[in-house]
Amino acid sequence: GAVVSQHPSRVICKSGTSVKIECRSLDFQATTMFWYRQFPKQSLMLMATSNEGSKATYEQGVEKDKFLINHASLTLSTLTVTSAHPEDSSFYICSAPLAGGLYNEQFFGPGTRLTVL
Amino acid sequence: AQSVTQLGSHVSVSEGALVLLRCNYSSSVPPYLFWYVQYPNQGLQLLLKYTSAATLVKGINGFEAEFKKSETSFHLTKPSAHMSDAAEYFCAAAYSSASKIIFGSGTRLSIRP
After folding, report:
1. Contacts of A11 in chain B (CB under 8 A)
2. Quick one: closest CA in B to A90, which residue?
3. pLDDT, tens digit, 9 for 90 and up, residues A2-23
4. Which label site among A35, A44, B33, B111 has the fewest CB atoms less than 10 Å from its CB?
């Protein structure tokens, strides 16, 4: 099956710094990628849809200036958490759909655990 | 609004017992439906998917799910639980081939020895 990777898997940073998380589709091209946030023992909450070559689409309540998304190529999307604060600590997961199918099967990355001190 | 509901945030069964995890969707139009499993600190792994080809869908690790339009349900079952099945399970739906996926709240499955 298709593989999606994320880097880093874990990151600890100080409050006020910015953190970049990469999401890569390793063996297929993805014009769209999705970014989710998951709090402990909770479900995945869609944050935004990353579109190659155009602006990301953010879900209601998600600050686009706080969570910067760049879809630089057909295999790479990045999420930058700017001026991170402890409440941004969470598990961030990306996914990419395999284009050309009859249904929206998405392949998920392994996730990135962000801890803001 | 379209939504996915999972009844029971935590289900505990004995090893060897039947596993039943419930999922209902809200839509007059049957969506594409998925079950994912998540182990601690890991991403999501697809267990199975419903794409209107067959109402009974078989997935990996012995799991299967049945789509029932009359009940707007897509419950996940496994005849005999194994200790390795302990994980978080998410039901999800997509309402078109290009739409975002909507996740249920998740059900944590525990297996008693």
Report:
1. none
2. B41
3. 889 999 999 999 999 999 999 9
4. B111
